[in-house]
Amino acid sequence: MPRLAGIDIPDNKKVRISLRYLYGIGPKLADEVVAEANIDGEKRAKDLTSDEINKIQRILEKHNIEGNLRRLIRDNVDRLKRIGSYRGLRHKLGLPTRGQRTRSNARTRRNKKRVAVGSVSKDQAAKVEAAKKK
Question: What is the pTM of this model?
Fold first, then answer.
């Protein structure tokens, strides 16, 4: 199992697909890395030689991925909170930061406080009442 940037990438997937398992690498960057390293993107990750893995590793060092990218994003959010910007306040409150409406949606950011209650059949209602009495 090849190891890039401290992460084991899947063996049985194509190289251009398995690179996407690294945080910060999407389809476009994965294709660019494969092209720059002169590696066939359709090749399986388990078939990579150590030289090819080293080429990919050197190319990936030029980009912010994994821990560096996570730290960069966290620092940016902390800076927004520290300076008291509107976006920073939204981050602090756990609300959407990009202008989405919160009246009817945003359940994932608002911790799913409200759950829709459907109608209950008479049989099920009777069972619930019986359970409450016990």
Answer: 0.67
